[in-house]
Design goal:
Blueprint: E1 19-23, E2 29-32, H1 34-40, H2 44-47, H3 62-73, E3 78-85, E4 91-102, E5 109-118, H4 121-157, H5 166-173
Antiparallel strand pairs: 1-2, 1-5, 3-4, 4-5
């Protein structure tokens, strides 16, 4: 499926509704709710069986997804703010809570579930600047360089600031 060309128009989200999806351990979509389809512009049939990065916006730094994947593949939940790309090229920001799905008997990881809600305007402004800088660094020096920059930014924000609690710190510090 060809990715749309991004346009600079944000899709407003209803903060009383969640965008939900499930993937297998490789990030292939196995289930979505109706609101995901409505916001992304894709039908359920277009989404199921596709890699979740079908909605990845090019403004998102690769390091953000590496950190998310490292965390959930190690069996730990994580929260992240992500800018997604709809089928028509518009974008939408979401605060995403990732959960681990485990086999009831073996406790092995069988997939991941994500719940998404709207991100505040303030958080979007701060993160947009940070993510654009990380993407720029990745183009010049690769993901290792962007990770080093992100770690410096987090350390400067405070010893306890991590990618996991970055949104909480944005609200507290800015």
């Amino acid at each position: 499926m060809q990715r749309p060309e991004p346009i600079n128009e944000e899709i407003p989200l209803d903060n009383t509704r969640y965008i939900e999806s499930e993937t297998d351990t490789k990030g292939i979509i196995t289930n979505v709710n109706d609101y995901f389809c409505e916001i992304s512009g894709y039908s359920r049939d277009e989404l199921i069986g596709q890699p979740h990065n079908i909605v990845r916006h090019p403004d998102m730094p690769k390091i953000a997804f590496k950190l998310v994947w490292d965390r959930i593949q190690n069996g730990k939940n994580i929260n992240a703010a992500i800018k997604n790309l709809a089928k028509d090229g518009r974008y939408y920001w979401v605060f995403t809570h990732f959960e681990i799905i485990r086999d009831i008997n073996t406790k092995e990881i069988t997939g991941y579930r994500a719940y998404r809600k709207a991100v505040s305007k303030h958080a979007k402004e701060v993160l947009d600047k940070l993510y654009k800088k990380l993407v720029e660094i990745e183009k010049e020096g690769g993901m290792e360089a962007s990770e080093a920059y992100l770690n410096r930014v987090l350390h400067e924000a405070g010893e306890d600031v991590t990618f996991d609690n970055l949104l909480e710190e944005i609200y507290r510090l800015y």
